[in-house]
Amino acid sequence: MYLKSIEVQGFKSFANKIVFDFHNGITGIVGPNGSGKSNVADAVRWVLGEQSAKQLRGASMQDVIFAGTENRKPLSYAYVAITMDNSDHQLAIDFEEVTVARRVYRSGESEYLINGSPCRLKDVTELFYDTGIGKEGYSIIGQGQIERILSGKPEERRELFDEAAGIVKYKKRKATAQKK
Ligand code: ATP
Ligand code: MG
């Protein structure tokens, strides 16, 4: 499984619709300061369900919507879609390609989609359990994160190992069953 593409529209500095196409290898994103490199990583975090404005370097969740520039009006919504190559069927869904999308309007209205079908955030989260992908996964290592892992509480470090070992979904199911 690998990230095939990221589509952004109205997300942070990306007013126009832009599609980044990737291949099964290493891709580097380079550009001057403030050109939007980190915004690309923010887009991936956001579509995977990030709910913390702070994690996305904003003050409120609406800050992800293109705020306008001197000669361009603000937009009314932000949209991000990531497409994963799933030909190895690592994601438990019967598709060779999986597209996860999220859209939010200034009114606060929002939606998630998996391959075009509206779904809950929970469905997105569960799809990526034990893959290392996800807002709690280790596929995105942000600034200062290594430091936090090393100096974190043992229980927090344990969560990372659970994810890598592929047992998160069983633990979550057990916790849900015990609540019922
Ligand atoms: P650096 O090299 O300094 O890390 P970078 O390439 O990572 O820079 P980003 O932090 O991704 O840059 O982009 C910052 C830019 O995104 C700023 O110019 C900021 O104004 C713009 N930006 C962030 N949120 C929005 C928004 N909601 N609407 C419009 N522009 C935004
Ligand atoms: Mg940056």
From TrEMBL:
It is found in: Cytoplasm. ATP binds at residues 32-39. Belongs to the SMC family. Required for chromosome condensation and partitioning. Contains large globular domains required for ATP hydrolysis at each terminus and a third globular domain forming a flexible hinge near the middle of the molecule. These domains are separated by coiled-coil structures. Homodimer. This is Chromosome partition protein Smc. The lineage of its organism: Bacteria, Bacillati, Bacillota, Clostridia, Lachnospirales. The chain holds residues 1 to 180 of 1186 of the full protein.
